[in-house]
Amino acid sequence: MQTIRNTLAKPVYPLPPGTEMRFAMADGSGDVLLGRLNHPEGAADAGRPLAVLLHGLTGSADSFYVRATACLLLARGHPVLRLNLRGAGPSAPGCTRRYHAGRTGDVRRVLGLLPPDLAERGALLIGWSLGGNCTLKFLAEGDFPVPVHAGAAISAPIDLAASSRLFGSPPNRLYHNRLLGQMKADMQDNRARVGDRWADAALSARDLWDFDDKVVAPWNGWSGAPEYYAVNSALSFLPRIGVPTLIVHALDDPWIPPAAYLEFPWSDNPWLYPAISRAGGHVGFHGVGGVWSDRCLDLFLDRL
Predict the structure, then answer these.
(1) Sign of the torsion angle spanned by Cα atoms 291, 293, 294, 300
(2) In whole angstroms, how far apart are CA 224 and each of 137, 211, 216, 278?
(3) How far apart are CA 219 and CA 232, in angstroms?
(4) pLDDT per residue over 47-68, tens digit each?
């Protein structure tokens, strides 16, 4: 219920329309990522760093959790860029490729294209689920085109292989099939852009692991799902993160096994701030007073 609460309740998080931003990728694909930029209103603008928000699998800049956190950050005085990752949401018609758990080059490119008035503030990077894994990997890689002051990841599948296996298990079948259906539909709706080979491969996928094995991995140069998961899982990148990073996760997440979070030696890296709870679901954390992952983020930013 924590996990599906927003899907059932459909909360409204009003935001001004903001400004559309376009980011042309430099890999020869012709792909363009779209984002929505909001500035704090009037006196609320405290000159704080730009917050760049990365959604999860099948999400977009308008996902409930993205809009909720954007409201919090705008109230704190941060300009906010809600990015549609490659091929997601409004970015889909302008992209021949699709995002994945480790496509950090796109994030680096977006930061490098920021206008000077935003770039000079530096950035915060915040991601959920698959976007959280991408966030952690990016923070560990360094090579930031603008100063990155901090990061946060919520419900990140830091062990991609283990998460894929659990997500495809019988207890998750209903939601798994819904999400897989959305991924297949996206590929079919954009067949002319992504090409028949990958659209057909997506159509034949039996589950998420099979989708990653037939589509994501070979499309991006890996031999199959095992290599894709091994190369991109944030778990192996956590020791290298060198900026303050909040990591929020619930041990009852139905899609992410708890072992990786329980066994990682958090105290070995003083830049990591784990907020791990017994309950909260996947990108849930609903409680008295609102979504407590956002309350953790608020406190974390206060203490930087």
Answers:
(1) positive
(2) 20, 10, 8, 33
(3) 15
(4) 899 999 999 999 999 999 999 9
| Paired tokens of 129 | 């689920």
Alpha helices in the chain (DSSP H): 5-9, 64-76, 104-112, 116-119, 130-141, 160-167, 173-189, 191-194, 196-204, 208-211, 217-219, 225-232, 259-263, 292-303
Backbone angles phi and psi of 247, in degrees to 5: -130, 110
Give the tokens for residue 293.
Answer: 């992952």
Q: Using CB atoms within 10 A of its CB, is residue 16 exposed (0-12), middle (13-18) or buried (19+)?
A: exposed
Counting Cα atoms < 13 Å in the Cβ hemisphere of 179 gives 19
Both tokens of 53, joined, read 């928000």
List the one residue out of 99, 6, 11, 114 whose CA is nearest residue 55: 99
Which pLDDT score, from 0 to 100, does residue 42 have?
73
Average pLDDT over all residues of the chain: 96
Q: Which amino acid is at 143?
A: D
pTM value surpassing 0.85: yes
Compute the average pLDDT of residues 205-227. Answer: 98
